[in-house]
Write a structure and sequence with these properties.
The structure holds 3 protein chains of 3 kinds. Chain A is an alpha/beta fold. Chain A contains 16 helices and 21 strands. In chain A, strand 2, helix 7 and strand 3 form a beta-alpha-beta unit. The relative contact order of chain A is 0.10. In chain B, the strands form 3 sheets. In chain B, strands 3-2-1-4-5-6 form a 6-stranded mixed sheet, with helices on both faces. By secondary structure, chain C is an alpha+beta fold. Chain C is 56% helix and 12% strand. In chain C, the strands form 5 sheets. Chain C has a 4-stranded antiparallel sheet with strand order 9-10-12-11, covered by helices on one side. In chain C, strand 14 and strand 15 form a beta hairpin. In chain C, helix 3 packs across helix 7 and helix 4 crosses helix 6. The chains are: A alpha/beta, B alpha/beta, C alpha+beta. At the A-B interface, helix 13, strand 9, strand 10, helix 14 and helix 15 of A face strand 3, helix 7, helix 8, strand 7 and strand 9 of B. Strand 9 of chain A pairs antiparallel with strand 9 of chain B, so a sheet runs across the interface.
Chain lengths: 515, 361, 511
């Protein structure tokens, strides 16, 4: 990946400088940046976290060579001032012991498997399974301000590299297949958002589907795309410039995002991509990239620049099909909004909130049915019924939409409601400890003890918990009680319900039935 | 070869489609039993007769197919509870809801259970009554638990919040479990909600969340509404593809239950369902609770407001709004213009004339 | 699919009963419930909506209820036909009336006002040493297996009872020569019917035998209504409970003895005053889904029994056809089956070219020869496919389910209508195998005969098209020849078509 970058730099010596100066500016700004929180009681100060990232970025500026140099110097300076001269290791590369990840001891996946005295693995295996499930649902539940109203441009690589068959049936088909699912899911979760789709082919960028809020159009267009073959080289710059154009006229309270699915290891651009990056930064367009091949330096730069230094969560390279899907799904959840000062270049200090905090006027139409068909004002189709704009009384055939007559944003209340669980997330359940009821149990001692619990069954599904009250537990084998407790209503749930409740339901059955 | 290609021949008599049959189905019934809500309905009907009708309907559901199952959840005042399967009684493995394991220990020490002899009498009574065993198990449990529920809870006027969303959530978690236990066996599921309370008693967000979860699991929610119409439940039925019916004459309830609410998911594709086309998709204001058709939405938390809050702060997320923007919104004739102009800067002239400003109802 | 075979045979039997007997049957709630369960789904819906509705129903209402689609119309016609032929409903001047006896009994079953002891009388007193469910399972399995073993010709220590032997002979499943009553058999041969019998699932097998039993019972002057009622009642009893003989008629008590031989009921002693239904009996009126769990429960019983006395080698052989989910079929026609029982291997041998046998596994190949040999001995291709499906390894079912889910998801993403989706069936056995087996059968059946009526000499294209479309819609069309304006419909379809034609002409006259 380094060689890619070097090659690029060699071709564009000026661009490197331009990029650097832009970067320096950005880094300076970081001190003021922070993540907006709705509530004060968050566990860690996100501002600080951001600063760390900022510093990390400085290190990163010069790629691998930088580290090389520093490491060589280490023995000389290390003895005098231990604290300061300790090699600063990028979080990405840091291993468990504090050194580089590759210096860690080898951990084999089978090392953790230990049989109990009967030679059974059951307790351990079920524990591992649960841990796996938990990983899935553990998320930060601090209510962020999220950009609920989004404008996203999905950029699909349609270049020659996409005909590779390392994904089945090939990269191109799978990507379009996943993109279809993505579109459906995106509008399911972000009903009042807008989506546009671009393709990169023959060094050009082509519009596959215009920016709109109607999933059916996108799906039809993507299906059309499926019939074509990938060819030529991709150009990220062209794609980004076109995205900029498409995002230019979006409403001010919406986020501007670009998601690139990139299957190539290079980009063939007509001009200076670093300038484009600067433009993106200025226009607060955030770019996410999913790589299908290997990490590409220019991609990580784009992502880092446009996401305030947060590269890790926004640039992913897929490991397999499943991981590809997961990365795409990550993009469905709205991003936390990062509050920032308006561009310094303008030199005008305005209060930051103004842009994002406002009231939006919306109409909630009623659905009607008619005996005789009439034309709808959006597509001029004859149909029996639809939605009536409460403002101008025009008939619309589907929601959400912008009324073509009076430009009022029309939406149904259930569309809004779909987004609420992002804004008011359900608190994570806490695992019940063995000494929940019987405080005398010492969990540290490795002696078997008698477990004692308040509940016998999962509140949600009535399944009995595997570890029964009154049974003898050996802490060496039984790592988990398989009970998870809601912190508000103190009802206990099994792992499957826990996953289901947090992934799909977003309601605690206990709390809701105890009002 | 030709014979197979010729569809007319291939679909010889007797080959009538069995495709729709043979899938067992699970019916989850949510009954609202909060006594407070039943008071206004006293003139029309009473809880007891409704429960009786429901029981017959559930028996009918079990009668369709040997592997059909029923779960019953009561949304009582202050708590929602499973009536069947009974969480406290150990189940032998012939009972419909087969769980992984049931230890006999679970029966023990339940402080709230009534005196044993009362139950015994009842059991004896039901035992002598000659009735199909699947029905018997369910009916017994429902009556017993209901009685227990009413004995335990004192009528409490402060508990006017409905637990229906909680009960639906419980039904969903239970169905989710069943789907995991029965790997490989497909099972249709649906939820029937018998509700009496109005919209104002239900909390909005949990209701909506459970509706969307049901939609995601392809579980239709049928609503048998007594009393007044409920917008939330209408939406529930609409979103999930269920049936909503406001029952004005509860005396004929059993007929409704055995016709409209009896349509099994497997034949839903072929049967014309009663449709409710004029559904109110309007939202209610977070402050006043009024229904709004043109409202303001906070860009941060999406809460719906019917007017601009006086303290210029969002009542839900407490973010301060930009005073300039609010000022513009407050100047009524220009409200529209401003918002639209932001979105479509090229066509500011297309905005409607001030005369068309919304009339706040 | 195989469960339909039994449903169809039972239905056919019931449909052919005279009305007087049916109305007697309708007096028992348990029988009503069982008959109800055998109906198609749409018919169930119709019946249920009429049970609490006293007045006759205009037949047009059904047309309104059912959506205007080909599939829906076919289901409706089929449902109505079944209800009519069972005499559940009668049509008078376009109004449908539900049979009064049926209405009353069925309502009683639902509401629980029953005075007929239709659901059995449980013993009031507890027996000293209760019989466990595991024991019942073991008992049932053993009895039933011995019959099947006898059929495939396994060497048995003890021949099945006289009743069983004569039943097998009368039903034409076996050719048995010699004196049955003295158990002095000269030759025993399985027939074509016997082969196809072996491939059915347990439930269908039991029903086949019970229906044969009914025929014999009639000749023995046993009251068929009593016999049927008892069979249906068994289906609604509770496993593991003991029931008293009190409420049973004499015929029914006589039956107990025979049923004991089939493993349907258990009595400690022949003179005992109580009986236990076994799992075979309690699931008589269930469908395949429950049955699958039944067979697995059976397996569990067997296995636990084995653990108890591991040294008993006889028990090892007891693991017979109740073992479900052991067959894996690959797309290359190779078949693997985890089987130790000679019975299952013998059954497989009917249509598979078996290659090698290991301690717990047999492998084989499905070939044209092996299938055609089976077909020639009287086994239908549908039976073979059904057998493979029912006994498919759980892993195959899982894969099929996953594939189906993927398909549905894909189609719904791509905006297909929900109505199309539900029609997708689970493909447990690879579709190329299924098609090939069917094709092999077609090679043998060059000619297929259908009884029916030819319609020709129409007045014109309009009339021809109108009637043809109707015939197609209700699914009775077998053959059409557009050029010569002729078409051929099934026996059942004829009357409907004539009705339709006369209605048409009337309408035309009016206008």
């Amino acid at each position: 990946m380094d060689s890619d970058e070097d090659e690029y730099v060699a071709k564009n010596p000026t661009s490197k400088n331009a990029g650097k100066s832009g970067m320096a500016k950005r880094t300076r700004k970081h001190g003021d940046d922070d993540v907006m929180m709705l509530l004060e009681d968050s566990e860690e100060d996100p501002g600080e976290a951001d600063e760390d990232e900022g510093e990390g970025e400085e290190d990163d500026d010069d790629d691998g060579e930088y580290y090389g140099r520093k490491t060589k110097k280490k023995p000389g300076r290390g003895n005098q001032k231990k604290k300061k001269t300790k090699v600063r290791i990028d979080d990405n590369l840091k291993g468990k012991d504090g050194g580089y990840a590759w210096e860690d001891k080898i951990k084999r996946s089978w090392d953790i498997v230990k049989e109990d005295k009967d030679g059974s693995l059951e307790g351990l295996v079920s524990g591992l399974l649960e841990a796996n499930k938990m990983k899935k649902i553990y998320k930060n539940v601090t209510p962020f301000q999220r950009g609920i109203i989004r404008s996203l441009i999905l950029v699909i690589d349609c270049s020659r590299a996409m005909s590779e068959k390392d994904l089945r049936p090939n990269r191109y088909s799978l990507t379009i297949q996943y993109a279809l699912e993505f579109v459906t899911e995106f509008f399911d979760q972000n009903p009042i958002s807008q989506l546009g789709i671009l393709g990169m082919q023959n060094g050009l960028s082509m519009v596959i589907s215009d920016l709109s809020g109607n999933p059916i159009d996108h799906i039809n267009n993507l299906k059309q795309l499926k019939k074509k073959d990938p060819e030529g080289d991709p150009s990220i710059q062209n794609a980004l410039e076109m995205s900029r154009g498409m995002l230019l006229h979006t409403s001010p309270h919406s986020t501007k995002e670009v998601l690139i699915i990139f299957g190539t290891l290079f980009t063939s651009d007509p001009g200076d991509i670093f300038k484009t990056i600067d433009h993106l930064v200025n226009e607060k367009i955030r770019v996410r990239i999913i790589g299908l091949n290997a990490q590409v330096s220019i991609c990580s730069k784009i992502v880092k620049e446009t996401n305030y230094g947060d590269e890790k969560s926004n640039y992913g390279v897929i490991l397999n099909e499943q991981h590809f899907k997961e990365l795409l799904n990550d993009c469905i959840t709205p991003l936390p909004v990062i509050k920032k000062l308006s561009s310094e270049a303008e030199g005008v200090q305005t209060t930051p909130q103004q842009k994002t905090f406002s009231l939006i006027k919306m109409g909630f139409p009623k659905r009607i049915t008619e005996v005789d068909p009439s034309f709808c004002s959006c597509h001029s189709n004859l149909n029996y019924g639809g939605y009536i704009c409460p403002f101008c009384k025009a008939k619309i055939c589907s929601l959400p939409a912008v009324c073509p007559t009076c430009n009022l944003m029309l939406i149904s209340s259930s569309h809004l409601a779909r987004s609420y669980h992002h804004l008011f997330p359900l608190k994570n359940f806490e695992e019940v400890k063995f000494n929940e009821v019987d405080k005398s149990i010492n969990l540290e001692s490795q002696e078997p003890f008698k477990a004692n619990f308040q509940y016998h069954q999962c509140y949600g599904c009535l399944m009995e918990f595997p570890v029964k009250s009154g049974s003898i537990v050996d802490p060496k084998l039984m790592k988990t009680t398989s009970r998870y407790q809601c912190l508000d209503c103190h009802k206990q749930f099994c792992i499957d319900c826990n996953v289901f409740i947090h992934e799909h339901l977003h309601n605690c059955p206990g709390c809701e039935s105890n009002v | 070869m030709d014979a197979i290609a010729d569809t007319t021949i291939a679909q010889a008599p007797g080959a009538a489609s069995h495709a729709t049959e043979d899938t067992p189905s699970l019916l989850a019934v949510v009954i609202e039993t909060n006594p407070l809500f039943w008071v206004p309905l006293q003139q029309q009907t009473e809880l007891k007769s409704v429960i009786e009708s429901l029981i017959v309907a559930m028996n009918a559901h079990l009668a369709i197919n040997n592997s059909n199952e029923v779960i019953v959840i009561a949304a009582h005042s202050g708590k929602a509870q499973f009536l069947f399967p009974d969480p406290n009684v150990l189940k032998n493995d012939t009972n419909p809801p087969k769980m992984d394991s049931h230890s006999p220990n679970s029966v023990s020490n339940k402080s709230t259970s009534p005196t044993p002899d009362v139950i015994d009498d009842k059991r004896q009574y039901l035992k002598n009554k000659n009735i199909y065993r699947q029905f018997k198990l369910m009916d017994e449990s429902v009556f017993e638990k209901l009685e227990q529920l009413f004995n335990d809870t004192v009528a409490d006027n402060s508990k006017f919040k409905s637990t229906v969303p909680g009960a639906i959530s419980m039904a969903l978690t239970f169905i989710n479990r069943m789907r995991q236990v029965r790997e490989g066996i497909t099972m249709n599921s649906r939820i029937l909600v018998a509700s009496v309370g109005g919209d104002q008693t239900m909390s909005y967000i949990p209701t909506m969340n459970s509706i969307f979860a049901a939609q995601g699991m392809r579980i239709p929610i049928d609503v048998c509404k007594l009393g007044n119409d409920s917008t939330f439940l209408q939406q529930a039925a609409d979103v999930t593809g269920g049936i909503y019916l406001l029952i004005t004459n509860p005396n004929g309830l059993i007929q409704y239950l055995t016709t409209v609410f009896f349509i099994d998911p497997s034949i839903r594709n072929y049967v014309a369902l009663p449709v409710n086309n004029n559904i109110d998709f309007r939202a209610s204001c977070f402050i006043t609770g009024n229904i709004v058709d043109i409202g303001y939405v906070c860009s941060v938390c999406l809460c719906v407001l019917s007017m601009i809050p006086s303290d210029k702060k969002c009542p839900t997320c407490e973010s301060t709004f930009d005073p300039q923007a609010l000022e513009k919104l407050a100047r009524k004739p220009f409200v529209k213009r401003k918002v639209v102009a932001n979105g479509n800067s090229e066509t500011p002239n297309a905005t409607p004339t001030p005369a068309g400003t919304p009339q706040p109802k | 699919m195989s469960s339909y075979l039994f449903k169809d045979t039972v239905n056919e039997y019931l449909e052919n009963l005279p009305y007087s007997m049916k109305s007697k049957l309708f007096k028992s709630p348990a029988t009503c419930l069982a008959i109800y369960r055998l109906l198609p789904n749409l018919a169930k819906f119709y019946i249920m909506s009429m049970v609490f509705h006293e007045k006759p129903v205009n037949s047009r209402i059904w047309d309104v209820w059912v959506k205007d689609s080909d599939q829906g119309k076919k289901l409706e016609v089929e449902g109505l036909r079944r209800m009519k032929s069972l005499n559940l409903i009668t049509e008078k001047n376009n109004y449908l009336v539900l049979d009064e006896h049926f209405r009353e009994s069925f309502r009683n079953a639902l509401v629980g006002n029953d005075s007929h002891h239709a659901f059995g009388v449980p013993c009031a007193t507890d027996e000293n040493n209760k019989t466990s469910i595991d024991f019942l399972d073991e008992f049932a399995t053993k009895k039933w297996e011995s019959i099947l073993h006898f059929m495939v010709g396994t060497e048995l220590d003890e021949l099945p009872s006289v009743g069983v032997l004569s039943l097998l002979k009368h039903s034409g499943l076996m050719e048995i020569n010699g004196d049955i009553t003295k158990r002095n058999l000269t030759s025993v041969n399985i027939t074509k019917e016997g082969f196809s019998f072996l491939l059915q699932d347990v439930n269908a097998q039991i029903w086949t035998l019970l229906l044969e039993y009914l025929k014999i019972a009639e000749t023995l002057n046993m009251d068929s209504v009593d016999v049927l009622n008892f069979i249906f009642m068994l289906g609604s009893l509770e496993l593991g409970k003991d029931y008293s003989l009190e409420a049973l008629s004499e015929t029914q008590i006589k039956m107990l003895e025979d049923l004991r031989d089939y493993g349907l009921v258990y009595q400690r002693k022949a003179s005992s005053k109580r009986f236990y239904p076994t799992r075979l009996a309690t699931t008589l009126t269930s469908d395949s889904t429950t049955l699958r769990s039944v067979s697995s429960a059976m397996n569990k019983a067997i296995r636990s029994a084995k653990q108890d006395n591991e040294k008993d080698v006889k028990e090892e052989e007891a693991q017979v056809d109740f073992v479900s989910g052991t067959i894996i079929v690959e797309t290359n026609f190779k078949l693997y089956c985890y089987a130790t029982s000679p019975l299952q291997i013998a059954i497989l041998n009917l249509f598979v070219h078996l290659k090698s046998r290991f301690s717990n596994l047999v492998t084989g190949q499905i070939t044209r020869e092996s299938i055609q040999r089976a077909l020639k001995s009287g086994i239908a291709s549908d039976q073979i496919i059904a057998y493979l499906e029912v006994n498919a390894h759980p892993q195959m079912k899982k894969l099929a389910q996953a594939a189906l889910n993927k398909k549905i998801e894909f189609e719904s993403v791509n905006g297909m209508k929900a109505s199309h989706l539900s029609l997708r069936n689970l493909e447990i056995v690879p579709s190329n195998i299924v098609d090939q087996i069917k094709l092999w059968q077609l090679e043998l059946d060059r000619i297929q005969a259908f009884g029916g009526y030819l319609f020709k000499d129409f007045k014109g294209e309009v009339e021809y098209k109108g009637l043809l479309n109707y015939a197609e819609e209700i699914g009775v069309l077998l053959y059409k020849d557009n050029a010569n304006r002729k078409f051929f419909v099934t026996d059942e379809g004829r009357q409907q078509l004539i009705d339709y034609a006369s209605r048409r002409t009337k309408r035309q006259k009016k206008s």
